[in-house]
Amino acid sequence: MSLDIVELIAGGGCNPLSKKLHALFTAYHPYLATLNLFLEGPAPLPATINPAISANGEADSPGGGQLIDISGLKPCAYILWGSPPH
User: pTM for the full model?
Assistant: First the structure.
């Protein structure tokens, strides 16, 4: 799996994020059935995103990245995770 944030690539890692971020991801496993993208940090957090998985077990972010609205989050440290459900 590969995971990144467009705004951190384009704007540099030390600039604060505001209102939205775009998650870039690619995941592949021949038995991948579902994928969870979520933020970890203080509540309230945006809902978990479950992107579509292709028949060959691959999930890719849409062009420009998967939009995640972070306008309701307090300024803090958050972690973007991507994982199959356990």
Answer: 0.81
Residues near 28 by Cβ (< 8 Å), separated by ≥ 6? 1, 56, 57, 58, 59
What average pLDDT does the structure give for the chain? Answer: 87
Q: How far is CA 19 from CA 46, 59, 68, 69, 83, in A?
A: 12, 25, 9, 6, 24
* Domain parsing of the chain, residue ranges: 2-83
**Nearest residue to 25 (alpha-carbon basis) of 63, 60, 72, 76:** 60
Q: Could you tell me the sign of the dihedral formed by the alpha carbons of 70, 46, 1, 67, in that order?
A: negative
Query: Which residues are CB-neighbours of 8 under 8 A, at least 6 positions away?
Result: 15, 17
Interatomic CA distance for residues 70 and 59, integer angstroms: 23
d(Cα 86, Cα 76) in Å, to the nearest integer? 27
Phi and psi at residue 9, in whole multiples of 5°? -70, -50
